[in-house]
């Protein structure tokens, strides 16, 4: 047996050399970070690469090409943040980027959990590579516990994203809620260049998936499935796959499927809306809306700082307009009189609701994407 002696400054490490290869750089593959208290950090090549066997919908390929193209054009590091609930496509996009990065001879390093001093290890890799922090805000908090001096939180990683000392790196971060991210990461395109925000599946994604996977004799249900998807906050591929599975395998209506599945409209969704009055006037405003409510009170202002108006309506009767913006319309017969009898907003012809990427904390203080 032959020994290999690895020297780092004044430290020497003896390694049995039977199965040892000394390489100048990491081969293009996908690795996961591991840590052993005795031997330190290492990279294990994963046995099952991040293969994508199903068809891609939406803007996955567009975003992938944009990120990789920008990484090639920018001299230093590039960061891309993918935020949103589970199952709406952000992790699929990251997997697609990783696959294409390997084809471009770039190694991909997955950081799947919290590691103290991970920055020093990543910086020691002196070559261009992709580094993925999955569910970043869960592993690395915006603020670490005061009683743990060695806790490495988000702010301790800022220098890693900025560093140009050791190779050019593409950092991909996924998170479920970007409000849990440090203020020093958001609105800092020099540090995190892109922020792709995911909310719910778009109408085009829903209809394309159904066209490919729903039994042809059930295709007449696609508009109704799109309407249901727009109504449900954070409508995901998991939900869509379940609906299609039930319709394909059982003789039941879409209404039966929605009643049986573990899917419900329980949260408020952010919508812009337009109130169409018989006078020809159109009033614009925005609100949090509950499409599961048979008796929902909607308020709006006719002009900035003006008098508030309201109307009560059955939002369960909202239907998809057929437009790609995912808009829903409540027709006149499902709009009741204004909530306050003394108010006179005029007769309402219809109200159209358009999904928005705005996030509201309450009616007076709103988070804007």
Strand order of the largest sheet: 4-3-6-7-8-5-9
Relative strand content: 25-35%
Number of strands: 18
In the CATH hierarchy, the architecture of the largest domain is 3-Layer(aba) Sandwich
Q: How do the SSEs run, as a string of H and E?
A: EEEEHEHEHEHHEEHHHHEEEEEEEEE
Output the CATH class name of the largest domain.
Alpha Beta
Tags for this model:
23% helix; disordered C terminus; 3 domains; seven-stranded mixed beta sheet; elongated; Rossmann fold; 369 residues; 9 helices; alpha/beta
How does this structure look, described?
By secondary structure, the protein is α/β, with parallel strands linked by helices. It folds into three domains: 183 residues, P-loop containing nucleotide triphosphate hydrolases (Rossmann fold); 58 residues, no CATH class; 99 residues, no CATH class. 23% of the residues lie in helices and 27% in strands. It contains nine helices and 18 strands. The chain has a seven-stranded mixed sheet. Helix 1 packs across helix 2 and helix 6 packs across helix 7. The chain is elongated, with a radius of gyration of 26 Å. The protein starts with a strand and ends with a strand. The C terminus is likely disordered.
């Amino acid at each position: 047996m032959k020994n290999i002696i690895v020297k780092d400054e004044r430290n020497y490490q003896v390694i049995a050399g039977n199965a040892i290869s000394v390489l100048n750089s990491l081969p293009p593959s996908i690795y996961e970070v591991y840590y052993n208290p005795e031997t330190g950090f290492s990279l294990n090549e994963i046995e099952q690469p991040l293969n994508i066997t199903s068809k891609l919908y939406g803007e996955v390929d567009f975003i992938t090409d944009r990120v990789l193209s920008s990484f090639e054009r920018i001299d230093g590091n590039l960061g891309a943040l993918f935020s949103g609930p589970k199952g709406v496509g952000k992790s699929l996009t990251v997997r697609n980027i990783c696959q294409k990065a390997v084809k471009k001879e770039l190694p991909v390093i997955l950081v799947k959990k919290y590691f103290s001093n991970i920055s020093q290890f990543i910086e020691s890799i002196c070559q261009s590579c992709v580094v993925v922090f999955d569910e970043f805000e869960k592993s690395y908090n915006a603020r670490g516990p005061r009683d743990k001096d060695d806790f490495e939180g988000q702010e301790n990683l800022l220098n890693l994203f900025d560093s140009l000392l050791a190779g050019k790196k593409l950092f991909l971060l996924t998170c479920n809620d970007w409000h849990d991210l440090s203020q020093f990461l958001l609105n800092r395109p020099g540090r995190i260049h892109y922020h792709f925000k995911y909310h719910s599946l778009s109408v085009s994604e829903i209809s394309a998936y159904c066209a490919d996977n729903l039994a042809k004799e059930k295709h007449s249900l696609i508009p109704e499935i799109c309407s249901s998807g727009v109504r449900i906050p954070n409508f995901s591929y998991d939900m869509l796959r379940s609906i299609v599975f039930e319709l394909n395998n059982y003789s039941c209506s879409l209404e039966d499927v929605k009643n049986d599945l573990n899917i419900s409209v329980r949260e408020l969704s952010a919508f812009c809306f337009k109130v169409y009055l018989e006078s020809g006037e159109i009033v614009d405003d925005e609100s949090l809306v509950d499409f599961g409510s048979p008796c929902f009170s909607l308020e709006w202002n006719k002009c900035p700082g003006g008098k508030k108006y309201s109307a009560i309506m059955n939002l369960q009767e909202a239907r998809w307009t057929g437009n790609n913006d995912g808009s829903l319309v409540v027709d006149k017969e499902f709009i009741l009189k204004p909530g306050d009898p003394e108010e006179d907003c005029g007769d309402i012809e219809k109200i159209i609701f358009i999904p928005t990427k705005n996030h509201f904390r309450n009616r007076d203080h709103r988070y804007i994407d």
